[in-house]
Amino acid sequence: MPNGQWYPPEWPDRIRALAAGELTAVEPRRAATVMLLRDGAAGTDTGPDVHMLRRRASMAFAGGAYAYPGGGVDPRDAEDAELGWAGPPRETWAERLGTDPASAQAIVCAAVRETYEEAGVLLAGPDATTVVGDTTGDDWEADRQALVTRDLSFAEFLERRGLVLRSDLLGAWARWITPEFEPRRYDTWFFVAALPEGQVTRNASTEADRTVWIRPAEAAAGYDKGELLMMPPTISTLRDLLPYATAAEALVGAAERDLTPVLARARLTDTGELVLSWPGHDEFTKHIPAGGRPS
């Protein structure tokens, strides 16, 4: 039975066009996504649940696939030196993420902002030791919509609300770059975070038709059976969550995670076979015969 790996049918032709010099790789856009975790029922040993959304089938990129809340970086977040900030300084994040401090600030902001935009969960508080509680209500929704449309910058939003971004609530988990042959490319940093007490998730994204809290093992089993469609980064990071018994353990474990970027490679053999692979992730390797489908 085939698994649920997202595999666009146009990939073989695009890969061959790239190899022949007929296709130019586009520059990947920086992005961030968050694996939002919550612990299961007390007394159980099933590990934390993870919040996932299913992208609408009509979406141009990864339609129908399960993913985490996330999205692109807003360049304004790299430029605003007055942005309310708590937790490790930007320089520490820059070293962890492999970027400069301004870019690190923008990436962390994207993780927090997109989680709020798509799940209604805000990793921010009045000070460095507290987290905002209820984020529902018409006034909150108006601000969220203004963030989505970029009519309001994240720094302006925080200032308006008297809040600081709690960067200490995030743990950097992985970094994946969309393959060079894809027309829409992202350089994406994956983070983990625990659902703050008093907050609830909701499907606030226009890009998703369903959201679920699901155990990583259950989601991975659904992928293995071909029931849940996922991109390689999603199923890989899900499997990496399996050893952790609690959200707190996963956050501690994030500090030791390797953030070397994962980028797919494609090569043509002498027989015309195309071999598509993701270094360090053998389960995603595809062998495509000349003019054929992957095996």
From TrEMBL:
GO molecular function term, any single one: hydrolase activity
Domain of life: Bacteria
Family annotation (SUPFAM superfamilies): Nudix
Signal peptide: none
Keywords: Hydrolase, Magnesium, Manganese, Metal-binding
Key word Zinc-finger present: no
InterPro entries linked to this entry: NUDIX_hydrolase-like_dom_sf (IPR015797), NUDIX_hydrolase_dom (IPR000086), NUDT19 (IPR039121)
Entry-linked PROSITE patterns: NUDIX
Presence of keyword Iron: no
Cofactor or coenzyme needed: Mg(2+); Mn(2+)
Domain Nudix hydrolase: 27-236
Protein name per its UniProtKB record: NUDIX hydrolase
Organism listed in the record: Streptomyces mauvecolor
